[in-house]
Amino acid sequence: MPIIDIHIHLSDIDSFHQTALDLSKVDYTAAGLKAEFDKNDVVLGIGMGVTEQTKGAFPDSTSPNPMGLDLEDTVPPFLMECVGINPNMLGGKDALEELDRIEARLQAPEVAGIKLYAGYYHHYVYDKIYSPIYELAAKYGTPVVIHTGDTYSMNGLLKYAHPLTVDELAFQRRDVNFMICHLGDPWVMDAAEVVAKNPNVYADLSGLVVGDRPHFERFMNEPLFMDHFRRALVYSDHYEKMLFGTDWPLAPIDLYAEFVRRLVPEQHHEKVFYENAFALFPRIQQRIAAL
């Protein structure tokens, strides 16, 4: 079965390098990612743009917009990109230049959407500072992907990353599709309700486990851990709006695919692993056709 991994990283972020080396044991390079794609029949990935200006500074308040995939010189042909947004740069004297650069990048065929790092940056997603971003998303028909739940940095603030904040945003902007990352973990029931209530909200299942096989085995064999997510999926009952993603390099793709296969009922695998991505990311059809 072909797979689309809608949430990976390929940016020169110190914490990603350390996680790959110490926890997931993956080869954090474009070649390493392509090898894992080929091994697991992944036909396309979507990378979440983010950058560091200073080593270890993620989330970096000084990163210019748009943030991209800067581990390599160019976006590899087997990837698309969600351009990352640093809201701290949208309210200053150079705000118009920042928005012009974002809009120019959104016109590139390899760009699939927009990524907001709620929690990492201390702004609610319904804050007016993001209004021009949503206008651009509506203009270009691109979804907005939003980090929710726990932050992979002690400098994040969780109140900004709660999935219930997306409910207010989705109500305000019915003309834009949104994706809740990580199913809002640990607030997965709240995320499930936001998806069920709002026709323009989807969720991905990425980043729920970080590490190598011993780590995965420990959690996959813990019923309380697995039921934490299964309960939310059953409650939402919208498998057509759930998408597979790994948050690579936080976990090897084969292990993460095994984990999601255990979570999601088999009759919904083709939707979650492949078909649902086309409904949310309209540009991926052309990218896949070009491979």
TrEMBL record:
Amidohydrolase-related domain segment(s): 80-282
Keywords: Lyase
UniProt keyword Lyase, yes or no: yes
Record Pfam families: Amidohydro_2
Molecular function, one GO term: hydrolase activity
Classification via InterPro entries: ACMSD, Amidohydro-rel, Metal_Hydrolase
Protein name: Amidohydrolase
